[in-house]
Amino acid sequence: MKTIALVAGGPKENLPVLTDYHHEGVIWVGIDRGTLYIQESGLPLTFAFGDFDSITNKERNELTKAFTNLSIFSAEKDKTDTELALEWAVQQSHELIQIFGATGGRIDHMLGNIQLLFKTIKYDSKIEIIDRQNHITLFTPGTYTIKKHKEWKYISFIPISHEVKGITLEGFKYPLNNCHISIGSTLCISNELIHEQGTFSFHDGIILMIRSRD
Q1: Which domains does the chain have, with CATH numbers?
Q2: Which residues form the Thiamin pyrophosphokinase thiamin-binding domain (predicted)?
């Protein structure tokens, strides 16, 4: 699968093992300090975005010498480095965009990064935010099949539009049939698959699916 992996500069302890997500065809893109995370993991860095205000002058000089495809922005701008990188990524028409280093640390950055998923609705790429414990994906109305995964045991569905209508969960420990849930509801937190695969569907609204480890 053609994949772009964006690595932002969130706390290193929140990162999964990046090499677990490497395969042929992945384009690794650094965002500010995330550029160093890619290099430290021994992965091939293709592009880098940011004002690089979260790294030292020495680290920045070393990056500039070692790598020519740095897009350096002013620290005073109307968009975050992650938003600028994601805007570039969705224009590349890849099947999957994975974002790492976007959670933990400052909650304003984390919430802003999750809300960036809204901007991707009109694009064909599947976009995921992944950290050591969570896997976040935005869904628009439709029917979806998901497979059981022993490491990602818990599955939550969180409405992020005013209302999500007609949500149906099949193959889950706590099934639902044509249920309406409003933003702020915790009804669909911490569910589990009881079969090797299950389906969820809804006909109106926008929802986040979060798969979590123990």
Answers
A1: 3-132 (3.40.50.10240), 139-212 (3.40.50.10240)
A2: 142-208
